[in-house]
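User: Hey, my collaborator sent me this sequence without any context and asked if I could get a structure. I don't really work with proteins. Can you help?
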Amino acid sequence: MRKPRDFDSELKALDSKARQLKQAKLYRFGELVVATGADALPIEQLAGVLLAAVGTSDMTVREGWRQRGAAFFQREGKARGRARSGAASAAADDGGAAPARSAAGAN
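Assistant: No problem. I've predicted the 3D structure and written it out in structure-token form, which is a compact way to encode the shape of the chain:
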């Protein structure tokens, strides 16, 4: 005989997963705002820019924005790759030892 499904627990699990996904999405949007430097804008100005972008139906303008965004992510990806390889080579150069603390930096 089959065990009956517990719809309540499945619904709770799905609700929890949906909340986690929403939180991750919000976090990524925040990271994007900071990475682009848009966090320096006043919140009203940033909201206005986003509303203008959402309200624009001119496909030429939107394509230009898409290309700029794609170029931004390509630059960011290359910069991250260089930073990772630079950190790995620096660790290999000094034998992987942590840098010594200066007297001024010590607590």
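In plain terms: The radius of gyration is 23 Å. You can pass these tokens on to your collaborator as they are.
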